[in-house]
Amino acid sequence: MKLAARRWIGYPAALLVVGATIELLKLFPGVLAAFLATLGFNFFFLPPLYTFTIADPRNVTALFVFLVSGLLIGRLSALSRRRLELLEAERRDLIALTQLSQGFLADTNRESLLGVAAHRLREVLQCQQVAILLADEKGVLARRVETPGAELREDLAELAHRQGNSAAYPSDLGGTDIYLPIPVGLQRAGVLVARGLRSSERLAEACALLLGLAVERERFLALARAAAETRTSEQMKSTLLAQLAHDLKTPVAAARGVIENWEADSGGSDASRMAGAQLDTLGRRIGELMDLVRLDSGTAKPRPERVTCGEIVEAAVARFGEALAGHALFLEPPPPDLAVEVDPAQMTEALGHGLENAARYSPAGSTIHVSVAEDETNVFFRVADQGRGVPAEERERVFDRFVRLEDAGRLPGSGLGLSIARSLVELNGGHLRLREAEGGGALFEIALPRTAA
Amino acid sequence: MSRVLVADDESAIRKVVRDALEREGHEVIAVIDGQEALERFEEGSFDLVVTDLAMPRVDGIELVKEIRRRSEVPILVLTVRGEEREKVRLLDQGADDYVTKPFGVAELVARARALLRRGESARSPEITRWGDIEVEPEARTVRKGGRTVHLTPMEFSILVTMLRKPGAVWTHRQLMAEVWGTTAGVTTDTLRVHMGGLRRKLEDDPNRPRWFRTEPWVGYRFSPE
To answer: A161: closest CA among A180, A143, A145, A146?
Structure first.
């Protein structure tokens, strides 16, 4: 009776001992503890006491049950322990990743970002060496940042980058050496190498992902900065050009005004009229040169609007009408409400150069025919003259700057008009070419893409 | 004699404008920017203001706005080619007309004359006879070279509207508002078609109109001289 009571107290006590042992010695020693506890139980509680012999055969069964329960408890306890550890590790990883991403986000400059990233990653990944290799535009791993003394195998990094697969190898530094592609969308920005890795490969992969995001973000920031800088420099350019145009044109305008005033007071003379005409020409040349400079410097940005073809023709004829004074003008009314999406001023200018060109290279009194036509994809503005036309082999060359056909040498003109016109048309998404008009004259044709109605 | 206020930051242009207007018999006060123009404008009364568009401190557009808040005085603006949007904006802000640099002195003087003449803007046609054309607004008849011309109601309406301000520029919007009573649903192309009709009936060469001229991307101008 006394013995039985001791057994019933001793049994749970022994279990506790088993449990505590497991707690103390962790997983594997738990099995050992189960055996020790079983032996202890036998020694202290099973008669004959203080021996490892068992008198009653029934107690053998009891002892066996005791051992099995001990092992079971040990196993369960170890499992939950293991799970806790995993959770704890994951929690640590998450905190590390969060800190890492915060760190990455704080850096807006690639150099400082990468410099710090290698060191941060070494801590987070608990590894010996970290290297970050970034690809240039051609996909070559050109840029490299690493913790001091990092040694890595270029061929493995190259392989990871080319194939986009990560690869892990047992490390001579202990742990693993891992070569991870840094993903950016579907592309790869480079390779992250961690040597002597102690933490999980999954954490390393997550770090590579974060690094990819940081690199991508930095790239976008750099693009945004560059765009802002370009805008500023373009604004400056365009302000300077406007100032220059103003500075060049004002003296011409003033001189012309002085002559006109003088003519009004004193009646004028051939000389004053000649000076006036020369100043007009000078003013036009300055205008053309400024147009050219604007086109070349990229400050002639079109501001497209929906305008009807009729308006464009009307504006061009109004603005360049003086040049056409010696010719008969035949305007075919454009289809009503046929519209295009272009910069109105630039298109007026382009078509105007066509009118000027026609007037200049066709005999006085002949007809200049202006028409607008359309097909499924394009709207055509055409200026046809009754001059000698341009030989087929010269039709592209006349669009080059300062090129004038040989027999045009005596006529006024700078050889810039057609070149400017073509640039203006192309800026607005169209094409300009010279063709042969019916009757052999030149046909100046602007083709603009149709806009959806 | 009229008093004219001229604002331009270029001394050479100031001189040209001053000489031209003084020859016309006007008293000219010339200043170098919009700020000074406003100060002088406060001090005395003027019959016409001629201002450059681009000036330091207060520019042309600002000056037009400020003057319009205080007075109905005609304003003529000196602009540069390629500033069509600016021109429309200027006219919307209350400027009466513009000349485009490099302008001829004759053109400047003609515009100034037209603006000065139009001191009290007429509700009825200012002019009914020019060239070989005669208009009788009451009878709604128009004759060219002695022969009666049949205008559509829209063409006639455009004609009598423009006759109210000879020499003046009308923006598309202004003309549409006057003729249709609204700018909603009227496109500049509609206006252009009616203007085309008017020109075919009244101009000697409708493709190169002499009386009803196009101001590219701005509007139209009736110039009977």
So the answer is: A180
